[in-house]
Amino acid sequence: MSNQSGAGKYYSANNDVANLHRDEIPDANGYPFIQVEYTPDNTGRIKRSGLAGESFQIGSGKETKYFYSIPSQEELYRLFGSEVGDANKYTKQIIQNSDGQLVISYINPNGQVVATGLAGNKPENLELLPDQETPIVSKIRINRSNQSNDFERGKTEVSKVVFVETEGGNLRLKYSINTEQFNKTLCAHSICYDCPKTIKLKLSNACGKILLEKIIIIGPVNDTRIETCEASRIPSIDTIISGLAMGEYYFSKRGNHS
Q: Where are the beta strands (DSSP E) in 63-154?
């Protein structure tokens, strides 16, 4: 912005206001405004925001970044105990400030912030907290409570948002079927877990880039003995995706019954 008039002039060396504190007014170098960028999903959530001044604009590396996730059930148990309720009803908002420090806020179903804390690695320009705890590996379980079903088309889908707090972080993906629990659920219908189906597992980043995609085929199409389980067909995946950038990641599991 021009420094010849308005806010551009006020926050510049051309400021001619006769004021006792004139010399304390910062020079914005042509950027006397605040910019806000929203997520492209029509939710009204903020993605990035800048502050006045050239050094704090969006794209400078000093802007404030916002991330959104859902806390794991174990995470909430550690904070509030076993009566906290369903984790899927909570929101985990992560803000990276201009110093590079991550600040986490836990928001309850009423939109109230119920806890805050620091996360991630210590920025180089800040001092280490004397009582910093050893990082805990967070386990996020994806089960039936996260699932949507389309019985007419024979399709199921599960999705989850995962946040990686550190640069170069790792995600370990483990998938298996609890055959004992599955059989108890479907025992009355004489259907076993190895009935013909295709399961597709996918992990992508916030830009939509697919980082992992696995297709599991369970049971042949001509399998007519759906009441008999075959141990050799129990699917199991255990893989690690390493070197991930800090940010949001989206996991989905889709099942298509033949």
A: 64-69, 91-96, 102-107, 113-119, 147-150
The DSSP call for residue 111 is: S
The DSSP result for 11-63, as a single string, is: TSTT-----TTGGGSPP-TT--S--EEE-TTSS--EEEE--SSGGGSTTSS-S
Q: Provide the 8-state DSSP code for 128.
A: P
pLDDT per residue, tens digit, the chain (258 aa), is 887 888 888 888 888 887 777 788 888 888 898 999 999 888 899 999 998 888 889 999 899 999 999 888 888 998 899 888 888 899 999 999 999 999 999 999 999 999 998 888 888 888 887 776 666 666 676 665 555 555 455 577 788 888 888 888 888 888 776 656 555 544 445 555 556 567 888 989 888 899 988 887 766 555 556 556 555 556 678 888 888 888 899 988 887 765
Q: Please, what are the domains in the chain?
A: 6-119 (no CATH), 144-257 (2.60.40)
Rounded Cα gap, residues 201 and 215, in angstroms = 6
In the chain, DSSP finds a helix count (H) and a strand count (E) of 3, 13
- Bridge partners, residue 154, by sequence: none
Q: Are 216 and 227 in contact (CB under 8 A)?
A: no
